[in-house]
Write a structure and sequence with these properties.
Strand content: 15-25%
Number of helices: 27
Helix content: 40-55%
Distance between the termini: 218 Å
Largest sheet: 8 strands, mixed, barrel
Shape: elongated
Structural class: alpha+beta
Number of strands: 30
């Protein structure tokens, strides 16, 4: 600027100077802006952009310069002050220009370098910025992902917790020590425990100690083989569970315990067991089961079906059950069956079908129609059983209901039917029907002495003979015991009935051979006729029975027709029974006593009490007349106790008299011996009257004893235990077994009068009597002979060893008032 010092000084136009500066500034700013404009490509030294910048800068400087020059004006006469220093103005201008050019070149070089460095820095900045943005984006993405993951984990945990809590399966976790650490609602529902009751408790609190089935399937073979365990609820109820176990691990994978998911299998097990049970019932049922579809095609059959019909499943499946039809039922039968199925939904009845082998058999069948939700038939189920055995049993039962079990003859039930038919038939034809009532004489004696099996065998042979002796249209019936009834049809007279009866009498009286025994038995036959002797069944039977009793009264082994006189006799018998019952409560009965004499010294040692009946109208009624009536009714028991009580009272009255030491014998019937009440009543009487027991003897007939020997031994032993002596009356008439005789608790035997009456004229009676006496002595028994009527008989008995005799030789039965005087006189 030294060159610019002028003298006088240069004047400047301030406005132009300002404009010069403004141009320079704006040009520079534009040049700089153009120069430093960013470009992605690497900068070039002589690029168009740089060249334009340089030109622009030059123009700017020139403009500035010339504007500046224009802004100054030199005064006239101005001189450059630098000249004097020795530097020419031209030189100075050259120097200034050179220096300016050098500065410009340096500036250009530096500018180019700076631009280059700026471009590189810009690229580096851009790269760093890009990387920073990428890192920032990654960081933001990572942060976003982390946030998302955290949220997802939290959501998942909440969801998992909700799933566990709302699960239908019991979910339980335990720690390594087996203690419960968590317990969901389902576990509370399944086991009945709240979580606060079990958390911290050992898992064994749930064990079923009675039936630990852990990891063991109880299912039968062939069923669901899923294992289950048995556990106990809080209330003690057993439940069955499927359990899935898995280890419970932390984030590092270390085991922290166990998690168990339990499915309550109880209902399913019960349902499955029920289904299994039904399947077993179906398969192994004793009844055949057939299942068909709606079109009645067989879908399934069980084992019993094959067993009953003979068909295997593969032979019938797909076929119609009509393949089993026997042909015994007509179309109307099957129409009724299908109508019942449609209207009622089932059919029950008896059907005859055919087996595979062709056999026709009866079956009891129930067919049920199964309907779907719409009420349409979808299946039929038929259940049937083979009724062959039942039919046979039914036939046997019907036979047993109408026939005698022992002989196979019609019984009373069938007799009524046959007799009713015969009477109806006779009424139409105008002929007669005969009813024969037959009883075997002395059959009871055979039955009791030889045994019931012999008696039964005898009855069977009698039945066979009767059946063979009558016509096929006639009916032979066993009425009971040894009583038989024969119905004879289409008779034209009573003589025909008599002829047949005589034939039966002859046939039945022939000898029987049974188990090596030769037996002989005869019948007593009573006959009533329809319609003469009765027009109804009961009357005919009653009248024939009356006639039969009349036959027995006539000496047995004979035939008697019913007559009006016989009917009157029956009426009289019934009236006598009624009067006897009345006599027990009145004064018509009394006891007489027949003395028993000691054969060694002739003194009276005892008496037998004998019952007498003084009827107000009929007078004295023989015991032979009313005792059988009492025996056949219940009166004998009451009568026997009346006699025993009278004897005990009489013994008490004889205290202090000559009769005080008399032994009193009292008769006891078979009916009394059978009745347990007699023992108790006798015991009670003895306690009331406190008699001299050594002087009381009970007499039981040999026949009564032999009816049931074992029972007789028991009953007689009981009576002997009360203090009674026991005597067997009518000995020799009852076919006693010596084996049983030695076991009987008896003290005396009474020889029946039938063996004494013909002594000494009948050698057989003598031998029998001597044998009885020897037998009694051998057994250690005393003897009484009854029916002694002569001195010869008494002498024979004394010499034979019999101790006591009783009979008309000494005295008849006497009333108590006469007995005392008679005994005193006789013994004196």
């Amino acid at each position: 600027m030294e060159a610019l010092r002028m003298s006088p000084a240069i004047d400047y136009d301030l406005t132009l100077v300002a404009l010069s500066f403004a141009i320079a500034v704006f040009a520079s700013l534009f040049a700089i802006n153009l120069t430093f404009q960013r470009d992605k490509a690497a900068p070039l030294l002589f690029s168009g952009k740089n060249f334009a910048s340089a030109v622009l800068m030059g123009v700017a400087i020139a403009g500035m310069h010339y504007v500046g020059m224009e802004a100054a004006y030199f005064r006239q006469g101005s001189v450059c002050l630098a000249a004097p220093s020795g530097i020419d103005t031209a030189v100075l201008a050259a120097i200034v220009a050179s220096v300016t050019l050098l500065l410009l070149i340096s500036t250009l070089v530096m500018l180019t370098y700076d631009i280059r460095m700026a471009e590189q820095n810009a690229l580096m900045v851009d790269e760093l910025h890009r990387r920073n943005l990428a890192l920032q984006q990654e960081a933001e993405a990572l942060a976003s992902n982390m946030t998302t993951n955290i949220r997802e984990h939290a959501h998942r945990d909440r969801l998992l917790a909700a799933i566990v809590e709302q699960s239908n399966e019991a979910i339980i976790t335990t720690d390594l020590g087996g203690r419960i650490s968590s317990w969901n609602r389902a576990a509370e529902r399944v086991f009945g425990y709240r979580d606060d009751e079990v958390v911290g408790q050992l898992i064994s609190i749930l064990d079923d100690t009675e039936a630990e089935l852990e990891n063991h399937s109880c299912s039968p073979q062939g069923s669901d083989d899923t294992p289950y365990v048995s556990r106990r609820r809080k209330d003690g109820q057993r439940i069955f569970l499927h359990i899935n176990r898995s280890p419970l691990r932390n984030e590092e994978g270390d085991a922290q315990g166990e998690i168990m998911v339990m499915y309550d299998f109880t209902q399913q097990k019960q349902d499955r067991d029920q289904l299994l049970l039904w399947s077993l019932v179906y398969e192994y049922s004793g009844e055949a089961i057939v299942i068909t579809d709606a079109d009645n095609h067989i879908l399934s059959v069980n084992h019993a079906f094959s067993r009953i019909t003979g068909y295997q499943p593969e032979e019938v499946i797909g076929n119609n059950p009509s393949m089993l039809s026997s042909g015994r039922h007509d179309d109307s039968f099957y129409r009724r069956m299908w109508q019942a199925l449609e209207s009622e939904g089932y059919f029950k009845g008896e059907v005859w079908n055919r087996r595979k082998n062709g056999d026709i058999y009866p079956e009891w069948i129930t067919i049920t129609a199964l309907r779907d939700d719409h009420g349409e038939t979808c299946n039929y189920i038929a259940i049937f059983s083979d009724a062959s055995d039942y039919k046979e049993k039914e036939a046997r039962i019907q036979h047993m209901a109408h026939h005698d079990a022992l002989t196979g003859l019609p019984n009373r039930s069938l007799l009524h039917d046959r007799l009713e038919q015969a009477m109806a038939h006779a009424s139409r034809r105008g002929d007669m029907v005969a009813l024969l009532f037959m009883d075997l004489d002395r059959f009871k004696l055979i039955n009791d002495t030889l045994g019931h099996h012999i008696g039964d065998a005898l009855l069977v042979q009698v039945a066979e003979r009767l059946t063979q002796a009558v016509r096929s249209d006639d009916t032979v019936c066993r009425q009971g015991g040894d009583e038989f009834i024969i119905v004879l049809q289409e008779l034209d007279s009573c003589d025909s009935a008599g002829v047949i009866a005589e034939k039966l009498l002859e046939v039945l009286s022939a000898e029987y051979q049974i188990e090596g025994e030769s037996l002989k038995v005869t019948p007593s036959i009573g006959i009533s006729l329809y319609p003469e002797d009765g027009e109804d069944i009961d009357t005919l039977i009653k009248n024939a029975d009356t006639a039969m009793y009349h036959a027995k009264d006539q000496g047995r082994a004979n035939i008697q027709f019913f007559t009006a006189a016989l009917n009157e006799k029956l009426t009289e018998r019934m009236e006598l029974e009624k009067n006897l019952s009345d006599a027990l409560s009145g004064d018509d009965l009394e006891l007489y006593y027949q003395p028993q004499v000691d054969l060694s010294d002739g003194r009276i040692r005892g008496v037998e009490a004998l019952l007498r009946w003084n009827h107000p109208q009929m007078g004295s009624v023989s015991p032979a007349r009313f005792i059988p009536i009492a025996e056949e009714s219940d009166l004998i028991e009451e009568l026997g106790l009346w006699v025993l009580e009278k004897v005990l009272k009489q013994q008490a009255q004889w205290q202090g008299t000559p009769l005080e030491q008399m032994q009193i014998s009292v008769n006891v019937s078979a009916r009394q011996l059978d009745h347990a009440h007699f023992f108790e009543a006798a015991k009670e009487m003895l306690q009331r009257y406190t008699p001299n027991m050594e002087r009381l003897e009970l007499e039981v007939t040999e026949t009564a004893v032999m009816q049931n020997v074992v029972r007789s031994i028991e009953r007689l032993a009981a009576l002997k235990g009360l203090g009674f002596d026991i005597a067997v009356d009518d000995f020799g008439t009852g076919y006693s077994s010596l084996n049983y005789l030695k076991r009987l608790p008896i003290d005396r035997l009474k020889i029946d009068r039938s063996f004494i009456g013909d002594i000494p004229d009948d050698a057989n009676d003598i031998v029998i009597t001597e044998a009885i006496i020897k037998l009694a002595h051998t057994l250690g028994l005393k003897l009484v002979a009854e029916g002694v009527e002569s001195q010869e008989q008494a002498e024979f008995l004394r010499e034979a060893g019999c101790e006591v005799a009783q009979g008309f030789l000494y005295a008849r039965a006497l009333p108590p008032a006469e007995l005392e005087a008679f005994v005193s006189e006789h013994n004196a």
